[in-house]
Amino acid sequence: MSNTIQKNVPESRYQRLKLLWDAESMEPSLSWGLRMAIATTLPMILGVAYGQVEFAEWIALTADCICWISLKGTAGQRFRLLVAAAILCWILTLIGSLSGASVFWSVCFMVLVAFASGMFRNLGERASGLALCIYVVFIITNAYPANGEALEERLLAVSIGGVWNTLLGMATVLFIPQQTPYRRSIAIIWQKTALLIQRIGSGWDGIGTRKSVREIYLAEQAVTDAVTSSLAFHEKSIYQLRGKEHTDEFRLAQVRKIASLVAATMQTVAEELEELSLNSLPEDARLRISGMMTSLQLNAQQMVSLTLNGRKEDETLMEQTLQQLQQRIGVLAAYKAGSDVLLGRKISSLAHLARRCHKLLIRCLELEAKVAETTFFRSYSILKTAYVLHPKHWWRSIRVLFSFDSHTTKFVIRTSLASGLAIAIDKVFDFQRGYWLPFTVMIVLQPYFVATFKKAIDRLIGTISGGLVGGLVLMIPHGLYLKEAMLFLSAVAMIHFYKASYRISAFFITLNLVLLFSVSQELDKYVIFWRAGLTLAGAAIAVVAGFLLFPAWDKKYLPRYTAEAVFKNWLFFQNTFLVQLHTGVWTKFKRQAEVSNSNAFNSYTRAMEEPGGLPDNFKIYYEIIAHNMRITRELNNIHLDTELDENLSYKLANQQRLLDTIQQCIGLFDEILGHLRKVEVRKYFPAQIVHNLPEVLPELNPAQQIYLERLMVELTQIAKELKLQNQLPTA
Question: Which of 538, 534, 551 is nearest to 413 (CA)?
Fold first, then answer.
């Protein structure tokens, strides 16, 4: 037995290392952390060696702030972000240093900086790190005012820090293949799709337990978020790249589309399986379904490796897994249900959906074989590198940045007032290291109250524990250089845990900042207590501000999100039946509907966690959201069958029946939106839906006819529930 254990240990370690490597290949948090560690630690080491510690601290601080920017997307996007961050750091250092001696000007500029930081959220994931960068730089420089030669020296250090970080950031991507960032974003979609398949297929092998509807939907939501994130950095979809079919960008856009379509198909599989009872199902049927789901999951996982690496051996493995999937589909389709009509129909539907996935995966394999790779270094000439700073890129970002709506406006005003109050308190009472007060306010405040409260708790726990450990490290004699080593390790760790656990990340953030500003200083025994106390006060200000200053309660926003989700489905339906079925842009409407569904679901979840919870009469919104999600899936199914059926020549035996069904759906949409319009009037809501049916009705195969009928059933259920409710509840 001991020999068996010894053999298993290396294999287990290898698997863990492989999982770590795969995770790093898709979302390189370790290399991001190393970049931050090198950017901050190297200047400090040189500063200590040459007796310029204070100068080095400002270089390290600038590098530390800029390193919070996640470098995703193309080389041009990365370069623009780094240049913008370096310029903003220099400007805010000047403003912060000059205004620090005045309470009035400190508060005024803090309000403006907080306002700008809040607006950066409009730019999405790519600018969240930039927002963190600018307000940290302002808060720290404002806490240590300077002018004259001291200011000139500080500005020089910040300039060096900005240039140093830009060079380091770009050096990390120069020698990787040009399409690697795009591939990573697609691989994440495949990874989330594999997780979705795993949750749907859980329990069918007779060993595990079936996942709940909520767990499956959360996996669906993760796929939607991954697609949205990919589009944020690699914006062009297939319909925007027409005429460029020979390019790698077009091929990768197709691969991304296929990944999202496989996930959409699996959502339908989940619905089909939901209607089957696992306990009463014959074992033979259950094992065939389990075998098919396992094979689908294996194919999705293999697509992760193929997308990331594109190696010949990955293609060979993918071909083998596709053959296995085809065999499993055949085994499932050959099952004889006998007199069990429902089971026979479900088996037939599952086999049909699995064949759809098989076709999509074959197409994806063909596309992957044609994608060539060129390094960033070879693909960017001097002229092309200069073009990435073209004013049109900046102008487009500025327009998105200042896109106001009521929700964004309330958040930035709340953030500005709370941070202004925090820095005013700091300046009036002149706390030791009082910059932790506005810093905590800015970190903790979130658009929604529940999120703010949760982040305040995580921040407090991480800050206090990190401060205690930092204080213990500062007690160690300088000669051991442990502080510099811990500075390096804490920089890596705070990035590694940033997305996984903010509580742990906050611990390392605190440890890192305590060490960064203490390399040249002796231990102040009270610094830990000041740090904990100011963090507690800052978190309290943030929570109170979230509760009192233009609070964003989901009880109020839930009707808006629900109405928007239904309306996006109406646009999807309109594009499907009232325009043309083959417009080529249907995935755009699909994505808009799914994102709106996700927003509505998240709003309902947050509203449940708000003080007092949701009144019982608000449960109707959950019902509307659930039915609406199923409508999106049926529309997806109709388009997927159209796209994959090369010989579509089906006609309804009774064309009048198709006409009547579409007209009934239009009437139901009109009725439902009429109810929702009473609780949420938006400028894009039409006063009344009036549409003439097209002269030529779309061709539908038998499966698509069923999807249309099921869509009408969902609409009927929503309309029926709204009639029973009579009037939708509002906050």
Answer: 551
